[in-house]
């Protein structure tokens, strides 16, 4: 079954810079880079979440090229990573797919760049992940971040990645850092 940690890249409901709820565009870079991170760190899967039919078709075409098309022959390792990608029309749909696979309710974890009163730190979540009978679904926002309703519907809010004052990482960078902190292995040399 793989790891009990799943990644969700949320394109709706997302805030734009005016704090209005919108749907954002799926990007080729996000699909490739996050799938590669998911494979590198052994995530159970990676869900692209969008209700927009045009964006679903775009994502399907990209994935099909690398998993079933000529891309699978040209770059077999890319096929491996993109085989982890699923497309869902909503967070709830992806949540149900994971819960059905595991025959238990998934725990939702949301991320963001701003502090939250219910934030848990990386060490706390890393300890929870050791319970391999419970699946976790970690959600990353696009645009200007996840809508409040997504945070309100989560089980945990992961503390933001702290830097030196500048706080505008790409979602691909954030996914890589979070997965490394939660699933990365450290040599004891």
> How many domains, as an integer?
1
The overall strand count is 9
Q: Gyration radius, to the nearest Å?
A: 16 Å
Mean pLDDT: 94
Order of helices and strands: EEEHEHHHEHEEHEHEH
* CATH A-level architecture: 3-Layer(aba) Sandwich
What about the largest sheet? 7 strands, parallel
**Beta-strand content estimate:** 15-25%
Strand order of the largest sheet: 5-4-1-8-6-9-7
CATH names the topology as Alpha/beta knot
The total count of helices amounts to 8
Helix/sheet category: alpha/beta
List low-pLDDT spans.
none
From the N-terminal CA to the C-terminal CA, the straight-line distance is 31 Å
Q: What CATH first level would be assigned?
A: Alpha Beta
Can you tell me the overall shape? Answer: globular
CATH superfamily: SPOUT methyltransferase, trefoil knot domain
Helix content: 40-55%
Describe what you observe in this structure:
The chain has a single domain (5-183), classed as SPOUT methyltransferase, trefoil knot domain (Alpha/beta knot, 3-Layer(aba) Sandwich), CATH 3.40.1280. The chain has 8 helices and 9 strands. The chain has helices at 28-41, 53-67, 70-74, 76-82, 91-102, 122-128, 148-152, 171-183, and strands spanning 5-10, 14-15, 21-22, 45-49, 85-88, 107-110, 119-120, 136-141, 156-158. The strands form 2 sheets. It has a 7-stranded parallel beta sheet, with helices on both faces. The protein has a two-stranded antiparallel ribbon with strand order 2-3. The model has no long low-confidence stretch (mean pLDDT 94).
């Amino acid at each position: 079954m793989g790891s009990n940690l799943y990644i969700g890249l949320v394109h709706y409901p997302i805030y734009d810079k005016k704090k209005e709820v919108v749907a954002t565009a799926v990007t080729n870079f996000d699909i490739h880079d996050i799938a590669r991170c998911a494979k590198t760190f052994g995530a159970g899967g990676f869900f692209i979440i969008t209700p927009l039919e045009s964006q679903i078709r775009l994502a399907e075409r990209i994935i099909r090229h690398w998993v079933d098309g000529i891309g699978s022959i040209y770059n077999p390792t890319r096929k491996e990573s993109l085989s982890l990608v699923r497309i869902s029309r909503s967070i709830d749909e992806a949540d149900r797919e994971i819960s059905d696979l595991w025959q238990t309710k998934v725990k939702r974890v949301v991320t963001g760049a701003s502090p939250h009163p219910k934030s848990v730190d990386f060490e706390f979540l890393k300890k929870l992940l050791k319970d391999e009978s419970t699946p976790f679904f970690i959600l990353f926002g696009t645009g200007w971040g996840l809508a409040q309703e997504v945070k309100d519907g989560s089980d945990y809010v992961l503390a933001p990645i702290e830097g030196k004052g500048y706080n505008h990482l790409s979602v691909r960078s954030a996914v890589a850092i979070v997965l490394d902190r939660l699933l990365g292995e450290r040599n004891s040399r």
